[in-house]
Fold this protein.
Amino acid sequence: MPRPLWTGAISFGLVTIPIKVVSATENHSISFHQYHREDMGRIRTRKVCEIDGEVLSQEEIGKGYEVAKDRTVPVTDEELDRMPLPTAKAIEIVAFVDADGIDPVRISDSYYLAVDGQVAAKPYTLLRRALERSDKVAVAKFAWHNRERLGLLRVRDDAIVLHSMRWPDEIRSPESLAPRETELDEDEVQRAVQLTESMALDDISGFRDRYRDALEEMLAAKSEGKAPPAAPGEAEEEPGKVMDLMAALNASVERAKETRGEDATVHEMTPGKPRTRKKTAPAAKKSTAKKTAAKKSTSKKTTAKKTAARKRTAS
């Protein structure tokens, strides 16, 4: 089990569950050091007092709050520990809500809650079963790193997970970021829906960090004195080029089906061109005019023939 980050209890009504908080995630990012280009010497960050210029150790550094310019109030860890905070040593459940009612943008880091001793096994299992059967999640308050936080408790496999959440006033409104009203053709919307269906997955556990893999490969090659592997060439988009949205959607659906090994035949869907009477009316009038002129011409020729025949008969 990873090293516990915090030890306390879950307060569930009158039930107390001793728990240990351990991180639910691991950071696999590759870290770099800063160095001097000329001689490869390490560059280190040092904490220096701006008054006497001395380099300080962590034990010599304290906390303080600047209440005004050139005036700082010192605050000790002991004073923070004595703060009258009911959630200082407990994760206090304050409500149960539907999971769909929690905005994912509010969720931050995730932690597993492990039982702290055999005495916690029964109440821990009780809370887990209650969450499973009710199909709800628990909203809780807890204090950590000198501030009270909002948390979300839910079940993952056989463990209870704590997600730290942001307070409502910490979420910025996206109102100013939303685009203005844009006209979309219904065929474009249907093709976009088809693309979502073509890319649908039941399990995303197979995804890997390809950038990290490539970075490890490059570092391994450089450590052995070899040239880094060449990056695959990609076609660059012409800057300022106007996108044909329907063509892009059609191509995306085709590629998604090919990736999944399905029939990649795509029936092109293009926006229908509106038909108006204004465009067809002149053609109809022109055709009618031709027919009327033809009838008049034929009538004149027939009349002329009859008149000529009468004159010959009279003579």
